[in-house]
Amino acid sequence: MSRTTLKNFKEKAFQKQGVQDEYDALRPEYAIKKKLIAMRKEAGLTQEKLAEIMGTKKSNISRLESFKSSISPRIETLIKYAEATGHELKVDFV
After folding, report:
1. Which ranges does the record mark as transmembrane (predicted)?
2. CA separation (Å) from 41 to 31, 34, 56, 78?
3. Taking the domains of the chain in order of start, what are their residue ranges?
4. Domain spanning 17-84 has what CATH number?
């Protein structure tokens, strides 16, 4: 029996019309979420502690970091998140 890997799954999925385009469109969103999680972990914070610092609920941090969620955070939220983890938000277009 053959084991399906993520790589195999993606190769098959990308053969279907439109899947590659949708995947590429989500790439920036996933990159941001991965960066947020890395920043929080680097700061040694749990979602609970980060929520406390930001004056919000843990469930909001969880949704913000979730790859299943389609929430687009407000700039103000990203600024608060950055400050709470010891970072500064910079926006750039390339």
Report:
1. none
2. 15, 11, 18, 16
3. 17-84
4. 1.10.260.40
pLDDT band at 23 (very low <50, low <70, confident <90, very high): confident
Contact 66, 33 (CB under 8 A): yes
Look at residues 57, 50, 59, 58 and name the one whose alpha carbon lies nearest to residue 86.
50
Distance CA 84, CA 27 (A): 25
Compute the distance between CA of residue 83 and CA of residue 34 in angstroms, rounded to an integer: 17
Per-residue tokens: 3: 């084991």
Helix, strand, coil shares, percent, the chain, to 5:
65, 0, 35
Winning range, highest mean pLDDT, from 19-33, 46-60, 64-78: 46-60
Angle at 6 between CA 25 and CA 12, to 5 degrees: 70
